[in-house]
Amino acid sequence: MKRGWEGRIVKGNRNNQTISGVITKSKRHYCDNSEVEIVLAEILFQVEGNNRAIYAYTKEEFHIIRDCQDAPAGLEFA
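-> structure tokens emitted (78 positions)
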């Protein structure tokens, strides 16, 4: 995934329920002379209102940075 993050659909599991969201903003960062790529993504979850969370994506995994009440763990591309 090198480009086109905004608009991508993601999904995860929270309390045995599949929750999906859409990436609304993203920013790419590089560490260790560009050996490590990290993408910060703001994700909008529409579960009983609009909730946003921020995840870091690196090594093909999402890691939660800023939580919201409906942010699932184990996020992946849908």
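Residues 32 and 38 are 11 Å apart (CA to CA).
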